[in-house]
Amino acid sequence: MIKSPYFDSWTALVLKLAGIVLILCSLIDYIILLSTANFGDAQWTVSFTTQMVDRGFIPLVGLALLFLGQLLDSRGEPTDPLSQSSQGLRIAALLIATVLGVSFLMIAPWGWSATGQAADAQLKQAEEKLTQTKDQLNQQIKSQLDAQVSLAQEAVKTGQFQGRQLSDAELAQVKQQLTELQKLKTDPKALDSKVAPELDRQLKPMRDELEKAKNQSQWNARRAAARTALNSVLLAIGYTLIGWTGLRQVR
User: What is the pTM of this model?
Assistant: First the structure.
């Protein structure tokens, strides 16, 4: 097989350019992600750390291509040291690797904490919705009670109910019901005791759904947090080893 110095030089150039493009594109991508920073929002933090980790292999591939291109380029003249520009490019790449290594090491606990906070926030919203529904049902029941009191008062006053004349026995029964309704209206504890079974019946499906969503949310949060944290630690190890070991060899 015939080896061409020109072909080796061209291949090295392509590898270096591909590596530089991948690294720069990744850095631009990270800067754009940071431009929407909202560190107080747990959901944004989860999205940011997840995207950072998911794209973390791209600059790693870029570094590998860059160093491979430099290695191939140096094989043509093994006795000559690296040129000043090539040496500067290598140092810059190693510094970027070191910074990325530290960044991914910080992302691991940050993403883990933010994922838990986001899950808690979602559960809090669901619980608030359940409370609002309960309050609405309470208000609806009280409105119905007011309507019943008004009808009973009108029946007692006129002796009629919905246009029908009441007998003495029926009127006495209406008066008794009116007394009970007025007691419920003036006694919150008695009202709560009266409507509690109906409230429980109507809210039970929502409570069951909330409990199911809570368990599912906790499981998904733990799984997503573990995935992000583990991948982040692996990327941190890879970038840190590349950066530190490379910088130690630079003379």
Answer: 0.69
